[in-house]
Specification:
Layout: H1 2-13, H2 21-40, E1 56-61, E2 65-71, H3 80-91, E3 96-103, E4 109-117
Antiparallel strand pairs: 1-2, 2-4, 3-4
Length: 118
């Protein structure tokens, strides 16, 4: 039994010499974890941000707000209430302080800005 514990202790404290059987086993287990772990284990590290990157601009306004600017097609809505609902869907669980339409020179809405508290 002490031989088993000595082997386990050697693995825990990494006492085996390079090139030995037990050293190769430890390196193999580490490589298996690195390459197969993300496929098997759900680390729950997926991005929470569902916004399309190329159509979204995020800037900071002072120390209190982030300003999200999203293309109007992403926030398709007829009134401010629907715009707010669509921003909630896109941004997730955040507190939207203010929403503003961004218009082109002819007055058409091309994007929306939302001020989100940090």
């Amino acid at each position: 039994m002490s031989r088993v514990w000595r082997t386990i202790k050697g693995y825990i404290f990494w006492t085996y010499q390079r090139g030995s059987f037990h050293y190769d086993v430890m390196v193999t287990l580490i490589l298996l974890f690195v390459f197969l772990g993300p496929r098997i284990i759900d680390f729950k590290d997926k991005p929470t941000d569902q916004l399309p990157r190329e159509e979204t601009v995020v800037t900071a306004e002072g120390t209190r707000f982030h300003v999200y600017q999203v293309d109007a097609a992403q926030v398709d809505a007829q009134d401010e209430g629907m715009v707010r609902v669509n921003f909630d869907r896109l941004l997730g669980n955040v507190r939207i302080e203010r929403i503003e339409a961004v218009r082109d020179k002819s007055g058409h809405i091309v994007a929306y800005r939302a001020w989100v508290r940090k």
